[in-house]
Amino acid sequence: MLNKLLAGRRGYFFGFVACFGLVGLALWIQTRYNLDPCPLCITQRIVFMSLGILFLIAGLVNKFPKVFAGLQVITAMVGAGWAMRHWWIQAHRETMIADCGVGFDYMFENFPLKKALSLVFKGTGDCAAIDWTFLGISIPQMALIAFIGFGVYAVYLAKLSRK
């Protein structure tokens, strides 16, 4: 029954809605608990939106499932990498600099692109803070689970289209 429900365009549109739904959830958590997202949080949101757009395009085109699955898996792996880096920074917060660092917007407005990207990847003191958890799981851990899930889901959709 699940195969019929997710077959074809519906499966890709579900992926699109799920990706943007997670970004919406992050925005809700941010505003509800008055949190400022760190550069790595924002980067992960951008990757979720990119992944969602890939699901949307795949649903609109409805051809080349292997190509889209490859792009979606690569994008999900990139997001998983950012989430793992963020999780690592949080796990080592005792050794992180206590300074909150500069914000995402400031980095890209005032530094050359290469330097700004370098700062984003390193993370800041903000990235080390664990401001919110659900069932003991931090936001980067949830993002990692979601990225892995979307990668598996992309492969699942590609296999469904072969039938």
Walk me through this protein's architecture.
The chain is mainly alpha-helical and 163 residues long. It has one domain: DsbB-like (Bromodomain-like). It is built from eight helices and two strands; from the N terminus they run αααααααββα. The protein has helices at residues 2-6, 9-32, 39-61, 65-91, 104-110, 113-122, 125-128, 139-162, and strands at residues 133-134, 137-138. The protein has a two-stranded antiparallel sheet. The longest helix has 27 residues, at 65-91.
Strands, helices and their partners?
Elements: H1 2-6, H2 9-32, H3 39-61, H4 65-91, H5 104-110, H6 113-122, H7 125-128, E1 133-134, E2 137-138, H8 139-162
Antiparallel strand pairs: 1-2
Helix pairs in contact: 2-3, 2-8, 3-4, 3-8, 4-8, 5-6
Concise overview:
The chain is mostly helical and 163 residues long.
Query: Distance between the terminal alpha carbons, to the nearest Å?
Result: 14 Å
Share of residues in helices: over 70%
Total number of strands: 2
Unreliable spans are: none
Mean pLDDT: 85
List descriptors:
single chain; Bromodomain-like; 2% strand; 8 helices; globular
